[in-house]
Fold each of these.
Amino acid sequence: MELNGKEYQLIANYLAGECTDEEQRKVEQWIDQSQENKRQFQELKRIWQLSGDAVSSRDMEWNIEQEWNRLDSQISKEKLSSRSKNSDQKRYWSFRSSSIHSGTQKFIRIAAVFLVAALLGVLSYQGWYQPEQEGQEPVLRQISTENGQRANLTLADGTEVMLNADSELKIPTKFASDVREVQLDGEAYFNVSENKDKPFLVRSNGSLIRVLGTAFSVRAYPEDQQVQVVVEEGRVSFGQEEEHGGQKAILNRSELGTFDLATHTVATRTVEDIELYMSWRNGYLKFEKTQLKDVGTALERRYDVEVFFEAPSLKKLLLTAYLKSRSLRNVLDVIKTSLEIEYQLDENKVTFMK
């Protein structure tokens, strides 16, 4: 029996005791449908128990692509059959029979990582592996992070990506023959493997970044109203997507480019302190004359909290600080001292006060 990504996640939630009543009924009805289903559930339960407490969602960095490739390779070796729909059967899920073998300890560890990751929400695989056929649109895998989480992944071409909190990356199961293309919502750092014959493209909020091999960071959160690119090494072509024929610019090392979503214009400037844009990779936050409301948004992503302001005037206060502590309370103490304000921390809620 083959399970897809969403169904693995639902079973993981069931094993962790985090299902709704309806989801619990669906899982239990599927288990009772056949002896094969019961056998497979017991196997998944055993894998889940083997995973133990080795993985924590808080500030965890996952090498997602490596684990996916290992899992995908193992699935191919096990010769799992492709899914097919059976319209004559009325069931809650379209599960089909095949088998999952415990095989080796290596596969158990990989499967455990996959299951735990699904539970924790560190990533979401949407669309289980499907062979691509000639003339079809490429199959995309979606990798996403929640607040308080980051993810490391290495793509098939060797490109390294770090995905910041509250971000989403879509990558094809296989790059095209002439181009390597991904889609980003949120923030990510790319260290692109050089290939002069196969440019690397990042599409984000109507903008296009084109490189041959370089290192750069992209920020494209919806509330920013702009796409921001900072180049650490090499050169980057950056601007509006080609099909719209918009303005473009070439960015070199230590240069910042911004694409305004309203005017579709590109502005560039030299960056003196690149850590203002790259510090998040190490779990730090660095601000220079940044409004407290934007600092609050960064805190929400970094520490998975909700930030509130007792008075609207507090949102406009300007903070200059390098917040390197892993402790939220220590970070809040620095902000308190710097801006001469107070704060209240209640579980996962932070309130700034005069």
Amino acid sequence: MYIIPAIDILNGKVVRLREGNYEQATFYDVTLEEMIEKYQSKGTEFIHIIDLNGAKGDFSNQKYLFDIINKTEMKVQYGGGVRSIDKVKELIDYGVHRIIVGTQAITNPDFLPELGKEICGKDQCSDQVVVAIDVLDEVIKYSGWMESSPVKLTQYIDRCLSLGFFRFLCTDINKDGKLGGTAVDLYRKLLDHSPFIKLIASGGISSMNDIYELQDIKVESCVIGKAIYENHISIDEIKDFNLKALISF
């Protein structure tokens, strides 16, 4: 398992939300460039960038984000308003390593099959596409966590697998931004159902103990944001963990 530091951007600023609520945003006095430089200098390979404006259909951050992404050697996992195949292709052309898809994959039954033909015919789906699953009490939420899907969680995973997608970013909304611990039971349930999925855990991670719990149940990786900004987990600890994970791998 490895750790992917997260940077959320709202109106060009580094920010963290609580339970996805834009009205409960904490802004940090640091730039995206500064955060990427910190992680890169500590040997981190992946960075997780979410365009919170893009998630609402506002792509005013995009040129700024793309200019920075083009300058970094880090592999970028990117999400926020990716709701068309053309957008996925655009992001790949700009050098994004992995693209996160969420709402469109749930609401448009043709999206993932078409994406599989267009993108995954060239490369492994898991290498370029991550399917986001945002969960509240085991109900899949979408459209900024405002809408609920009638599709059961495990059924949705099975459908994605049948289409060739097997890397998932799962966020427990109840945990997100609270630093109250991660959703180990939820992730264990998903891995028991589908042991071969590549699962990225997100939400609530507050300490290295949470990281070790996730490692024990064999999630592929985890995303950490607020715990870093609030000094619960240091960048040095992330570096050490990832180096050990690389050596053991």
Amino acid sequence: MSTTILGIESSCDDTAAAVVRDGVLLSSVIANQDVHIQYGGVVPELASRAHQQNIVPVVDAALKKAGVQGNDIDAVAFTRGPGLLGSLLVGTSFAKGFALVRNIPLIEVHHLQAHILVHFIEQEGLSLPKPEFPFLCLLVSGGHSQIVLVRDHLEMEIIGKTIDDAAGEAFDKSAKLLGLPYPGGPFVDKLAKLGDETRFAFSKPRIPGLDYSFSGLKTSILYFLRDQQKLNPGFIEENKNDLCASIQKTIIDILMDKLIKAASDYGISRIALAGGVSANSGLRNRIESEAIKRNWDTFIPEFRFTTDNAAMIAITGYFKYGKKIFAPQNISPLARMEF
């Protein structure tokens, strides 16, 4: 008997819905919110309002694209957290109503665990390799930077994490200092391809163990640019490509140094990448080059599965459904949520 899961994602500024049947993705629909661009960052109240406008048409589109009716759904998986509370409330409330009306199970999903499980999405006509357990996952996004030991689909342990800012934030804040549009990470990546990554050197943190820190790097970049502009007001514009390349290299070096250490410490050569920053071409290339050097088996997600999406929520729901891990109707979203 087949199992069909509706997944709903609303943790930040993307309203998404997807349908998975027996682990195979039938549809994935995302509505983006361009309203935040003019503010240089996500405005929580505006995000919540946009989710309210988008949730019904997005779910409807996902069901139609999958060729299923609401009554064909066996369970609803939704992002409980972490994320923006107002945004999470919209997705959680819709999921609870959808499940209650049809008397089907409700499944809560941890947003970050779902990012990791994108590697297990099946797609019709495609046969992509999947990591065997255990494996390490470098999970990097705008709000999180973690190294996760994955022992099973639902058994994960954070073995390294940022103690302050995330890698994605370092990209975006650096981009803002350089006068690039929001979100800045993709613009840094684009210009870095045209620059010399060895042109400028920035300080790297000395944090023991497998934890990360990016606040010092942001400060280093800020002071460097300030001092250079005192000498030459046109410094940033004249050196923008090299600055992007050098900043990107530094961030990737920081990420990779700890990942290499983790792989050595745990004796694991299966390495996966996940999260929004996993779309960065420099990071993807570096992972691949290290794989050749260190005989790693690497797993890099499709670009459409790097940013927030509901396919990852639906596949996580599918694995939880198999173990009958359901949530009560009185469940509430959490802005911060333990792994």
Amino acid sequence: MSLFTRLSSSYFFYFAILGLISPYLSVFLDGKGFSSLELGEIFAILTATKIIAPSLWAILADKTGQQLVIIRLGALLALLSFVLLFWLNTYWPISFCLALFCLFWTAILPQLEVLTLNSVRHSSKIYARIRLWGSIGFVALAIFAGQIMEYYDQHDLSNSLISSFTDAFVLMGSVILLCLLLSTMAIKPQRVVNKVQKQTIAIKDKLLTSRFIIFFIAGVLLQISFGPYYGFFALFLRDLTYSGLAVGLLISLGVVAEILVFIFASSFFKHFSLKILLVFSLAATAFRWLLVAFYAESFWLLAFTQLIHAASFALFHSASMVFISNHFTSCQQSRGQAVYLGGVYGVGGAIGAYVAGVLWLDGLGASTAFLTASAAAFVAALLMMFLPKSESVKVE
């Protein structure tokens, strides 16, 4: 098995679980009888684990150089935490169990990104091709889980062992996490080099530059804008009477567009500056949420907004990885990734989830939630326009 296959399979299963949880966790929690406010609180709790946990894992990774061990440990503990959902039904036990899952799950991606970038010698072209397998995994599970959701909506399976979508949700997640653990076992460890140097170079000065601060705040605002989408989009579509297949296809459409961006990412960096790509991504996202707020009843306009996901996530993520890779030295990469993923996705995601839960009002405030999201992304685009210039990005 080649290095490309090993890394790609880990991305596939990592993002496959995201393809299940991101769209359908709200459906799972709704099936447990929780209100939209409680959903927002749970999403905020889960996302808040990303604020501290990635940095703790990254400090350990930078000091030991054992990224692969941490990836495997995170996958194992995430699996054990998720399996517990089979036996839980009330608010606090489920919240605690999901928080534990996120605590361990967040250990995986920053180290996997560093391991992959080092393995491919920071080639954005090869990285993008490996990373797109994560998008494929997301698509596969989003469509499959949508079909499963529709199947349970149309059939009474109360007497069967897996009697509801909530049971099927946990089963699917457990199987995917097991596959993720097995895929990480196939990756060969890298040699640990220059451990002493990794322990001595501080990261504080890089975090306090105006360039990083603007990038960081804009990223937080972008993640705030994703609150209604990540938390309630599948429920939103179901309430608008879209079928399970339509829900899966709409969610997957955005990821298909995202895959195309990952494939051709290097071309964008050759023709446009990093700043232009970041500003465009944020402005497109603001336009996307504006359309969702007013035209969600139209399947084709909603499909168009999902195509914008190519800019909202894939282009912004690719540009962010280049930014982080260039901004931090080689021995600061794990901590740089952790600050980005923990701060931007943790702080921004937690705020976005909670605000979306407050505004949603069990579906009555959906338009208000997406308008607020549009405003957050627009402010982020304006802020990113003040990003100081830097040296041109080298793309292999």
